[in-house]
Every structure is written in C-alpha cells, then in structure tokens.
TrEMBL record:
GO terms for biological process: CDP-diacylglycerol biosynthetic process. It comes from the Bacteria. It catalyses: a 1,2-diacyl-sn-glycero-3-phosphate + CTP + H(+) = a CDP-1,2-diacyl-sn-glycerol + diphosphate. It holds the Pfam family CTP_transf_1. It comes from Chelatococcus caeni. It is a multi-pass membrane protein. Pathway: Phospholipid metabolism; CDP-diacylglycerol biosynthesis; CDP-diacylglycerol from sn-glycerol 3-phosphate: step 3/3; Lipid metabolism. This is Phosphatidate cytidylyltransferase. The chain crosses the membrane at residues 31-59, 71-90, 96-114, 121-140, 146-167, 187-208, 268-286. Keywords: Cell membrane, Lipid biosynthesis, Lipid metabolism, Membrane, Nucleotidyltransferase, Phospholipid biosynthesis, Phospholipid metabolism, Transferase, Transmembrane, Transmembrane helix.
Length: 291
C-alpha cells in the first residue's frame, strides 16, 4: 500500500487567507494586545498609566452604549473623559483621594447631563465600572517593590483561566455553566480555568520570591487568592455576557479586530482588578495611623 504523500508546506496564499480570516485577525490582535500589556507593565511609568487611562475611558463609553442611556452620546463621552482625567490625576499625584475627587466631579456632571433617572443611574454605574479599570492597575503598579509582580499576577490569572477554560470546555464538554447567559460555557471549562489560573498565579509569585520579591506571602495563600480571583474573573465574564444579552448585541464594540470591544477583553480582568482594589483599600486602612 502506497504511503500517503506528504502535505505540501503552507503557501503565501494560505498564510494570507489565514491572516484575513476571523481566527487570523483574532490571533494577531491577541498577540499585539499581550505585547503592549506586558511591555508597558515592565516599563511602568507614564506609558502604563496612559494605557489604562485610555482603557478605562473606552470601557465607560462602551458601557453607556450598551445601556438604556445609549441614545445620550454626551453621557458616554463625559464618562470616558472623567475616568481618563481621574486616572491621569492618580498617575501624576499618586494620591487616590485626588483621583476620587476628580471622579466625583465627573459623576456630578453626568447626573446633570442625563435626561432622566434611568440614564443617569446607568451612566454613573458605567463610570464606577470603568473607574476600576482606569485606577486600580495604576495604583497597583505604583506599589513599592511588588507593583510589577501584582500586575503580572493579575495578567497570569486572567489569561491562563481564559485559555484553560476554553480548551477544557471544548475538550470535555458536559453540563452548561449558565446556558441562558452564555450557552457555550461549561462547568468543566470553569473548573479547568480555575485550576490553571490558580497555578499560574502561584507560579508568578514563586518566580518573584526566587528573586527576593514578595517573600512574605505563603504560596498556599497565594494559591487560594488566585483561585478566588480566577472564579471571580469568570463571573465577571458572565456578567458582561448578561449585559450584552440584555442589549441584544454580540460584542461591546468593534475597536479590536477579531475580539470586539475593550469590555469584551477586560471583563474578567475587571473582576480581578476589583478584588485587587478592595485589597489595596483594606491594606491602606490597616496601615493608617489611629487618630
């Protein structure tokens, strides 16, 4: 029996077809996003802060576009501007109360601009939602010694959870996680993502401790915290899916080729950032001197 002929190598035409396909655009966009996120995180400073100020602004605009306030363009633009200004204030001053003051001024402006109570409440909710993206990474990266580790830990937990949940869910299938909101997500994917996110978070901290950073954090505690963050991130993904289903859209936007909007890429990261932000507030309160 004749052996099968070897498959011919990829031709320029087949490569071009892949790059022009939905998967190709998604792959290239994903690589670019990861490169920008890691590069600015490593560099820190103004480049990192501007990236997250822009991300927060775009998230706020997309949120308003998905909400009952969508007809009021000024609310989306005003909220985006408020988040960006608050993020820049935090970056320049390093003073969270100043950033929150800027955010409060923006909230007052949105309340004045909204036509009715419903649109005002949705716009204010979008402002708060987006502020987590615009402020928490900036505050976390500015932490002495451990700032970069915290950001890399957030990336590792979110990215590995997402990748493992996708492949585990596709390979094993099984009962759906929440079919009325996200028909493709399964419990097997959830658990696979949980395991991978937990291990990834521990790996980042273990490498940091090997280099003399964050040595006071027990790895078992890091693993537990990573598991909570992984689960929370997956809930954040589901929450955004519910918002999009309510709005009757597939994606929050079209700014990222193959990926949709900024909210689509940062829904799980938002949930993890919220946990980190709460941790920063609690640790700040614990360190504050008694009056």
């Amino acid at each position: 029996m004749a052996s099968p002929e070897p498959r011919p190598p990829a031709t320029p035409r087949s490569i071009g077809s892949f790059l022009s396909s939905e998967l190709g655009r998604r792959t290239l966009s994903g690589i670019a996003l990861v490169a920008v996120a890691l590069g600015t995180a490593w560099w820190g400073g103004l480049a990192f802060d501007i990236l997250w100020a822009l991300a927060g602004a775009l998230v706020c605009r997309e949120w308003v576009a998905l909400s009952p306030a969508r007809a009021e363009t000024v609310l989306g633009l005003g909220g985006a501007a408020a988040v960006a200004v608050a993020s820049v204030v935090l970056s320049v001053s390093g003073h969270l109360p100043s950033a929150l003051t800027a955010l409060a001024v923006g909230a007052a402006g949105l309340a004045a601009l909204g036509r009715d109570r419903t649109s005002r409440l949705w716009a204010l909710a979008g402002l708060i939602y987006a502020a987590v993206i615009g402020l928490v990474p900036v505050a976390a990266r500015a932490l002495p010694e451990v700032g970069l580790v915290v950001i890399l830990w957030m990336f590792a937990v979110v990215w590995m959870t997402d990748i493992a949940a996708y492949f585990t869910g596709r390979s094993l299938g099984g009962p759906k996680l929440w079919p009325s909101v996200s028909p493709k997500k399964t419990w097997s994917g959830f658990l696979g993502g949980l395991a991978a996110g937990s291990l990834a978070g521990m790996a980042v901290v273990a490498v940091a401790q090997g280099n003399g950073i964050a040595e006071g954090a027990p790895l078992w505690m890091v693993g537990c915290g990573s598991a909570v963050a992984s689960a929370f991130g997956q809930l954040g993904d589901l929450a955004e899916s519910a918002l999009k289903r309510r709005a009757g859209v597939k994606d929050s936007g079209h700014i990222i080729p193959g990926h949709g909007g900024v909210m689509d890429r940062l829904d799980a990261f938002w949930a993890v950032a919220l946990l980190v932000g709460l941790g920063l507030v609690v640790s700040s309160a614990v360190r504050a001197p008694a009056l």
